[in-house]
Amino acid sequence: MSFSLTSFLQCPQTKSKNFELFENYLSFEDGTKYSFVDKIPVMLMPSMINQQEGLSFFENFYQTASEPWKYSQRAAECLRHDYVVEKVAQLTEKLGKKAKILDIGCSLGHITARLHPYAELIVAMDISLTAIQKARYHCLQSAHKKANIYHFVVGSATDLPFIDNFFDIVVASDGLHGWHLPQELQQKAAGEIYRVMYRQAYAIFTDYLHPRLHYKVSSILEKFPWQIECIELLYDRLWYQFESLLKAFKQYWWAQKWLASKKIALFLRSIAKNLGNNYSKHITAIVYKNES
After folding, report:
1. Global pTM?
2. Where residue 231 sits, what CATH number does that domain have?
3. How far does CA 80 lie from the centroid of its chain?
């Protein structure tokens, strides 16, 4: 089955679903218009666009750095990506079908590009147009013949531009807290994720927090009528401490090699597990929505 933008987009402002697509904009039936830039719908509400500070930060970040956060060069981040991809694979098995997947805050598409074996549709969304353009290039290079299952959208997690009850799996990687939202907007983003999930669907959350703040993840998720299937720790705090120790030497090839080594990261993880829950920065949660 193939999907077009009309299959899942809606106006985040008025919730209108019917629109016409023109060369440079989308026009909804209620007269609301959104930009269409480089074949990417920019579905940010006017109130969001008017708050220039947050948007400018992310846009400038992606424009000035070839790879913000250098995920592909940092083993702990690569292991986190592996974790999310493995969970998506497991959840599609549970669903018994290839899934309609939404990746919120996709950044450069490191995770998104690896999801196509498990999907009939992948929608990648970020608040930065530059990030989405780079993610599209990365994903289409990786997917080859399956590139037609990808769609790319600029949008905000607090006002998702998607119809209700649509996605089988939603990924919010380093999201609710990592997006630097105040608590009321974190809760709104979680509610938006619940809204766009299909009646029987999963969501995967990961967040980077000090261990004493891990409780904040479950405290938000518990406000919604999904089932929290599991909460897990990635036991990566020792690796981040190791990274800090090597900060002064990061220009040297050997330091870069050590920081990119999954073997070292896995060894540090094994030690951290024995030291206890205080030795994890990342916390993950999988929730299941089940509505009849």
Report:
1. 0.96
2. 3.40.50.150
3. 12
